[in-house]
Amino acid sequence: MNKLIITEKPSVASNICDALGIKDKDGSHKGYIEDDNYVVSWCFGHLIELAEPSTYGEQYRKWSYETLPVLPDSWRYEIKEDTRGQFEILKTLLNREDTEPVEATDCGREGEAIFRLVYEMAGCKKPFYRLWISSMEGDAIREGFSNLKPGTDYDNLYASAICRQEADWLVGINGTRLFSTLYGKTLKVGRVQSPTLAAIVDRDSEIKSFRKEPFYTVHIIKDKLDAASDPIKDKDIAEKLALSCKGKVATIVSVTEEEKTIASPALYDLTTLQRDANRIFGYTAKQTLEYTQSLYEKKLLTYPRTDSRFLSDDMEVTARRVLSTVRKVFGFIGEGGFDNYGKILNSKKVTDHHAIIPTVETGSADLNTIPDTEKNILALVAVRLACAVGEPHKYTARKAVLSCAGEKFTIKGKTVTKKGWKETEENFRKAFGMEVKDKESILPVLVEGQVFLDVESKSLEGFTKPPKAYTEDTLLSSMERAGIDEMSDDVERKGLGTPATRADIIEKLVTDGFVKRDKKQLIPTEDGIKLISVLPETLKSAKLTAEWENELASIAKGETDPEIFLSEIKDLVKKLIAENHEVTEEQRAIFGNGSREILGKCPRCGSDVVKGKFGPYCTCKSCHMKLGKALGKDLSDEQVKSLLEGNRILVKGIKSKKGKTFDAFLTPKGISDFSYTDKDGQEKTGFQFDYQLEFPD
């Protein structure tokens, strides 16, 4: 029997072939590689997706409140048209008598779904094995193949993946159709997307409603000494204090010293890497994931979609080899003080995958062939490994309190006693031309009872600061911590989404027009603000969506019944639709459809057809319907209105294929789908009217 290895992407298939020495026998195979012992093929991400609502009944083609909720009794899946050819290849290979399947898709929930759906859609009944690795290095791949697991070991993980897909479909389809039909505009709703948008809108509201307030601090100054009072709200009181201190005596009433230690940071998981890459390099979360995934496929980083910040207990030797390698590649890391390996090893805190670290392949790679964006990420991960095993950073914190005119004034200072891991961080910042943070502020020698004569004094005005707009760094942190107060300590995953999905959620909010980027800041658009204003609290609740993620994690561990979970989701959808069944005309106009002339209702989805700059179109973007022409002739607004009402219209000057001109009555007899390629080269499906022609007498 030949092992049939199925990967998630062609690049991973190539890495496995290199590691196992697999070479195509004759080079003639399309979509797979085969030698005497192995057949290697691949997916292109998801080849199978949940079917559209219309496959469950023609009534679901049209978006209307009356057809809600859409709750399939048995779920249907479809092959994606743009990858159908590769699916057919996989189907043939899976059902060949001489193949034994090995699942080698990414090790996680989504990777499990990608393989299993292809396996099931192909009708394959063979037992299969699972490759579970965290690195694309040759040694890791070979070790993984020597320890293949039965595919059934991951049945619960697959169940969680299917529950995630179906739950998202239920809430997304029903929520989007519900609020889109109520308000006459396509309004995307999602279990993670909506509360994430709500967080951005709430922060924007806090900023807009913020009113800065002045405060004042009084400073007493003598030579290099500058001590400040606590903030004072009243300007007159501050100025009087400054005046009363001017030329007076200041006495030190206390001097305290405290030795402080800052432990080295933990290794990167995907979210912390995305946050630092956004803060340091300005990369979006999606860009960081793409660069990290590319480095993984180049065998230079370990598996990126992880929420663990530790290595397993048996990885100390690997970590030492990797650090020795990256120190030669990135000379600025430095030479010594890297021996705190016990801090990064903890098998109990490693979930599906360990933390992200470089691989020893970095030492032999030609970094000149790697894009700067990827090199930056590689350097960032290498430096984090060095920092994580570095010595603690130590400093002495000093504080002196002075008395003058009956008030207390404070001055603080800091002296570094041991740079430790922060020296590596400083070297990194210098190498990349960044400002070095955390500078010393050394106090002069001060002792209790010391007196300063004839001090200067002044009152300085300051203002309270508004909250800062979210960046991807701070939003990712907020998503990670969302709902944390409502969860028990033993919960494995917390927050909105997973490390692998948060980037896509942010990107969807931007592409759907609900959030815009202003440099690093994420700002809600007018439509984003309006959408949150009309959604019920249920869909904006971080608590609810965080609980969902944890239930999915519980399903993956075999602790929760998938059917019970999905039943609860269906009940939620039913309640949502029952409680949001109508809006007033004034509420309906909130999204501005009143400013565009409405010509009628879309026959496919029930949304408004409005008059646009380039002709009438359906306000539901998924329809891709424009109605400016019929058989090549421009239509007037009145003709469009009549057609949408199902009436017959007279169109003059229609040209036949032979170039002859004629007049005809057109009666809409239905609609039909058609495929086309958009400006980005993506296959899309739209629809068009089908007409019955009648010629005038």
Describe the structure.
The chain has 697 residues and is an alpha+beta fold. It folds into 5 domains: 2-147, Rossmann fold, CATH 3.40.50; 164-208 and 469-585, Orthogonal Bundle (Topoisomerase I, domain 2); 214-262 and 393-420 and 436-463, Topoisomerase I, domain 3 (Distorted Sandwich), CATH 2.70.20; 270-388, Topoisomerase I, domain 4, CATH 1.10.290; 596-694, no CATH class. 35% of the residues lie in helices and 22% in strands. It has 20 helices and 25 strands. A 6-stranded mixed beta sheet has the order 2-3-1-6-7-8. A 4-stranded antiparallel beta sheet has the order 13-12-11-14, with no helix packed on it. It has a 3-stranded antiparallel beta sheet with strand order 10-9-15, covered by helices on one side. Helix 11 (372-388) runs antiparallel to helix 12. It is globular, with a radius of gyration of 32 Å.
Based on the model shown, name its key terms:
about 700 residues; alpha+beta; Rossmann fold; Topoisomerase I, domain 2; Topoisomerase I, domain 3; 5 domains; six-stranded mixed β-sheet; four-stranded antiparallel β-sheet; 20 helices; 25 strands; globular
How would you briefly describe this protein structure?
Helix content is 35%, strand content 22%. Mean pLDDT is 88; it is low at 487-492.
The tally of strands reads 25
Oligomerization: single chain
Uncertain runs? 487-492
When the domains are counted, the total is 5
Helix content: 25-40%
Rounded to the nearest angstrom, the distance between the terminal CA atoms is: 74 Å
The CATH architecture of the largest domain comes to Orthogonal Bundle
Biggest sheet, spatial arrangement of strands: 2-3-1-6-7-8
User: How large is the share of residues in beta strands?
Assistant: 15-25%
Reported by name, the CATH topology of the largest domain is: Topoisomerase I, domain 2
